[in-house]
Amino acid sequence: MSAVDYGQFILSLLFVLGLIGVAGFLARRFGLVQTTRPAGGRRRLATVETLALDGKRRLLLIRRDGVEHLVILGPSTETVVERNIRCPSGAPSAFEVTHEK
């Protein structure tokens, strides 16, 4: 293949990716894609913390309506380790946490 063929391939790829982007933008713009937002704009579910146990499993601390749940996620299973963990007093809500750079 010559340099012209490579250039034509790259331009074709960029054109197709651009078409996909424009189609996605138009779908959102005209309401073809349904995005669900909770009432009042406040999210009820958040991942508080994640810890990789090994290459296949992760430990997640999930907060729902002010109550935390500890879950192990594996490649084919999910196990609830502990339920109804009360959030520590004074801990910021998952909705209020800001990520500093």
- Strands in their spatial order, largest beta sheet: 1-2-3-4
Tally of separate helices: 1
DSSP strand (E) fraction?
25-35%
The average pLDDT value, as a whole number, equals 81
What is the number of independent domains? 2
* Total E-strand runs: 4
In the predicted model, the low-confidence regions spanning at least 5 consecutive residues are: 94-101
For the terminal residues, how far apart are their CA atoms? 45 Å
- Computed over alpha carbons, the radius of gyration is 22 Å
- Main beta-sheet strand count, sense and barrel state: 4 strands, antiparallel
Helix content: 25-40%
Q: What is the 3D form?
A: elongated
**Structural class computed from helices and strand pairing:** alpha+beta
Query: What is the string of SSEs from the N terminus onward?
Result: HEEEE
Give the gist of this structure.
The protein has 101 residues and is α+β, with helices and mostly antiparallel strands.
Task: Write a concise keyword list for the protein shown above.
single chain; alpha+beta; 101 residues
Characterize the structure shown:
The structure is a single chain. The protein starts with a helix and ends in a 15-residue tail after the last strand. Strand 2 and strand 3 form a beta hairpin. 27% of the residues lie in helices and 31% in strands. A 4-stranded antiparallel sheet has the order 1-2-3-4, with no helix packed on it. The C terminus is likely disordered. The chain is α+β, with helices and mostly antiparallel strands and 101 residues long. The chain is built from 1 helix and 4 strands.
